[in-house]
Amino acid sequence: MFPILILNGRALAFDSMIEFESRSVTDSGFGYLGNIDNCFTSGKATWPWEYGAFNNTCIPTMLSKNKNSCKDGGVGGLALITNVGRGAVYAAMLTAMPVGTIFALLAMGIEYVIMIDLCTNAYIVAPHEYINFEQGWVQCEEKGANLVLNTHPNALTAVDVPFYYHCDPFYDPDTGTTLKSGVEEDEALIGKTWGYMGAASPYCAGNAAKYAKKDMVGKVVVHYVSGWDRFWSGLNRCKAGGQGSPKRQELILAAKKSDNDKYQLPAHYHAYYRFVSGVGKVQLCVVTPYTLLPIRIGCSYVPPPAEDLDLDEFLKVYLQDTRCYYFITGRSDLNALGKSLRDTDELGIQKKYVKDFLSSDMHIISTVIGCMQDLLMKVFIEPSGANVNGQKPFFQIVQERLKQIVYAALVLYVTLVGIKIITAAELPQRGELIMYVIKFGLVLYFATGNAWYEVKNGEKVGLYPALLSASSEIAGFFMGAQNDNDPIGFCQYQLEGFNLFGEREIPVSAVIQSTGTEGASSGYILNQTLQPTMGFKDKVKITVWDLIDCKLLNYLNLGSCKYTIAGLIGVWLISAAILVSMQGFLLGVVSFIYCQMLLLVIFKFIHIFILSMFVLTILVLVSPIIICFALFDYTKSIFQKWMQLIIGYILYPALLFAFIALMLATFDSVFFGDIDLVNNRNDIKKACTGVDSVFCTTYEAVGADPCSANLGNINGTLTETFDLGPLGKFTILKDIFVGTYLDAVLKLMLFAFLFYLFLGSVSGFLAILTGVQDLGSMAKGSINIAAIMAAVGSGRAAGGTSAAANESGGVKGGGKGGKEGGGGDKVREGISAAGSGGGGGGGIPGGGS
């Protein structure tokens, strides 16, 4: 997907049917003979020093600390012995003049003809081509000299299906069997078998799951066209092979399986593995080891080995009930939810893109925030509410250590109140006495009780969990209002009368019956396949951060509905456009700044939110002592400030969401433009007519709904291969799309840059409003452009002023600097952020001495 420099443009074999078709002619007779491959100039013939590679019939299907038990084969040695023996026989026959010589030359001629036939007529069918044949998505057209393309609108490409894979966590391709739960040996392999891409991967989500071929993992498909048939009848473009095809025979091979199966191919075939160091991937190659010289037919990529993460067992157990565990396994909870939802919501609106997003593995922000919340609560609150490995929750230990201080403060309070009552001229009013008792009880409860946390039925409840989630709950109001105005509804899914994206908990056992409105069919049902979110008993947790993830991904994929790294068009435009033209170079720079500024705003905001959670945690941690300060008038102000900070650090990040909502609303106006879907809900093409926006640009460039197009088709539509000769080949953006994207992305870049500059000011303003410390300057990702410019400007001013001082002799500068230096001292007393008084007052370096 990303532009790749191909250092060696010459293919050593036919690695795909399209490559074979592009290098073959359809002519018969002498036209065919003029196109035959002599095996040497194409590099398909292998030499004796290469035979050792044929033994590579074993690769570890799982990367782990345990040694791999499989062994390589010995075909390379047999091929060498066979060829040496054949050479010796032919040499002996050549010396037996004339009969032996004739037979030797005749035999070598026949073998060479077989070699030429294989080099010219045998090829590999790439995995995506194999699926295309199954689906009937093959429609080849010649596009100029030596170029044949599959122009079927639904045709898959190598981007969509790079290798054969499967989506069954219980299937083991090595043995061809199904793993069983409860069996110790099988348990270690479930979800880690070779070729299993993961439930949340882009290969097992949405339509891509239909292309999974678990019986083809670790195999390669060879097609062979009879040279004799081509001589008499010519070649028909892009025909399927197999038993039903008289023109093209098919052979499916796996490593260590060297035979011709039931087809009459003209040689013995052998499959072996080859590591391509240039791209860091493994190929399964096919060779004919026993021909006159072994012929490499071609290669096909295989899935990477599964990885057994060698994590510390204690760490895995510790993280298992938190959302941090999803960094290991992926968001299986949201993936299951995405697969369970119907393609249309309760309003009858098509929402396949929402399902694709939920089924993806791009829930980065929500997982990070959820992980931090769960870890903080885990430190404070153990899931069982009891000791774990002999250790108590941290906050419980703090409470127990401070109990004596709390009790001492309470005793002192009772003593002082008693003395006050005894020494008073008259008894206090009943209301005043009641307040004494209430204050005593509240301090005792909040300082030593379980008001801050409690575990009920496996769920964490109490003030502390409520404080950590309060900001997100408030933020939901701002984000929900902004998301309602999304004209396309990329991040909208109506469920039980509310949008799915927000602070919601969906029961795992949910079966939702709803008649719906606006033509929706009755009986809307959630399938019974939901998985609870880690740390939430029998519930799937949806947060406002999932909405931000969804919005961010749509801004980066430019409306292509592709929620994978490869689908982030806005990212790969940076390099795809850089070599097109000067305008393309500008688009690459603009795309880079746009992506960087957008991510900086979001990441800085995330850091502020996480810092706020840590501050709240510290405030709760010191609560046993601070709450005691409420007992006495002299220390009550400390308690009040503590309360103000708690409320402030709840509101501070929550109100920042209003800024984020404003930013997203502005982005939507640029991203979608003035799309009128009220009257054109089912006709986006009509709604995009005459609209200058990023979404409409992508829609018109693809020529169809991007949500229904394959990623490979989008890539093929927007890009082309550019040959730089000895430097290799590059994938670049087509020149016709550069100008249309430049206008749209430039607007997004400008707004992203402005909002990045505004974030610091807004953060400081809200800190003053809520009475807390501004965390914006502490958050990473800050680039203080104003400070840099000020530093440059002050340096130039200082240099110019110094020159003026030298010309005037420094007399006036010295006097005035000394006079105003005192003023600078007063300024320092009032404003701690002021610079050096003498230099600042005099305006001339050294003038105030």
UniProtKB/TrEMBL annotation:
Keywords of the record: Membrane, Transmembrane, Transmembrane helix
Residue spans crossing the bilayer: 88-110, 405-422, 434-453, 563-580, 609-634, 646-667, 748-772
InterPro entries in alphabetical order: Conjugal_tfr_TrbL/VirB6
Ranges for region Disordered: 802-849
Biased composition (Basic and acidic residues): 817-829
Domain of life: Eukaryota
Presence of keyword Transmembrane: yes
The keyword Transmembrane appears for this protein: yes
Any coiled-coil regions, as ranges: none
Pfam families in alphabetical order: TrbL (PF04610)
GO BP annotations listed: protein secretion by the type IV secretion system
Residue stretches of biased makeup (Gly residues): 835-849
Protein name: Type IV secretion system protein
Organism this protein belongs to: Hyalomma marginatum
